[in-house]
Amino acid sequence: MYMRKFGTAILSIILFISVVKAQTRTHTLDKIAGVVGSSIILQSDIELKYASYLAQGNQPNPDIKCQILQGLLTQKLLAAQAIIDSIDVKEDEVDADVERRMRGMIQRAGGEDKLEQFLGRSVIQYKDEIRPDLKEELVAQKMQQKITTNVNTTPEDVKKFFNKISKDSLPTFNKEVEVGEIVFNPKLNPAEKEAYKQKAEDLLKRVKGGEDFGALARLYSQDPGSAPQGGDLGFNDRSTFVKEFSAWAFKLKAGEYSPVFESDFGFHFLQVIERRGEQVHVRHILIAPATTPGSLDRAKAKADSVYDLLITNMINSKRIDFSTAAAYYSDNKDTKYNGGMLLNADNVETRTTHIPTDRLDPQVALTTDTMKVGSISKPQLFTGQDGKKSYKILYLKSTASPHKANLEQDYPKIKEYATSDKINRTISEWFQKKRKKTYIRIDPQYLSCPTLKGWSTPETTAEVKP
User: Could you give the 3-state DSSP secondary structure of residue 391?
Assistant: First the structure.
């Protein structure tokens, strides 16, 4: 019931947005809200983005339109410079972005047919409409990356940045921990797998026999992201897929089917729909084997054995340690080559292992809360967000109590703030110079916006006629 109400709300929002767009195309209520060089920004562009803002559950706030216009002016300015600097995006990149956004809309709407019903146009038509705007967004992003590509933050920069912060304004960091894990996933033996492989083989036979691929995917595929779309994954590059999937996706010709093959997710077969350069459009059906009691027992036995090995070596001061054991035994590819250490998901680029306890998996947080630094836990059964079960051995490397920011403990975080500050100043300086050399005109309706102060070219504040 809840999901049905949620779906109705999303569809109503989509309908509202499409009505706004349809109305503004008549231009009877439209006007030019801004001009950047030879590019114009219509009031309808602002209204459409404001409708999207409301669609996300935000409260009505007319001031948001000022921020929207500033964002559009910024995008136009960056895109104009990108033309001068010969910066462009490949059509494959635009295709992938369009497909990614459309998959999200289709999923929220409850299917392609429902989305088309409420858009009042086909998905293909809608893709064509949004494509130019999305391409400009991507071009602007590349231009901004070029502006900041040479920004480098030295230790001296970090120190200066930190020293400029008043003592009263220093942030307080919550309790943080460094946690390692060795993960033991239950693995099915060949006999246990056979039934799932056979189910995939039977479905492939039905598809080749003439049954509708999309209908079978909706009924049987266990990929929650693509099953509602009939198994359709849209356009993607090689890096999107696991190697087994990518090998078939980029080997086959349009219209061809792969045989049933196995990956870490289960048994698949796929069909290539279209290939464009290094992008491929495929659909697939996934049959995911379920964990069996036997596979869980085998995972626990292995976890117990590794735990005993670690404890024995700790007592005897032998050289095998947690890091080595993680690299050799863990089934988590994201952590096993990092000494088993979890990375802060909010700061992946800095590869920091210091994680606020409120950002930990609640099961991990509960276990480590009673552990001493340097100790390891007995194997415990954990259930992931996807419902999959595994046994884990945890290692508590360090803890840091809540504290005011300081360079000694928090250098990686402070460096991140300093880098962000330097990037923002670099971009701000670029815009200040560029605005002085570019004709920019803003409709009087927005001249009182604090965020747009200084944007309009002098002596161009008269109202722009529609």
Answer: strand
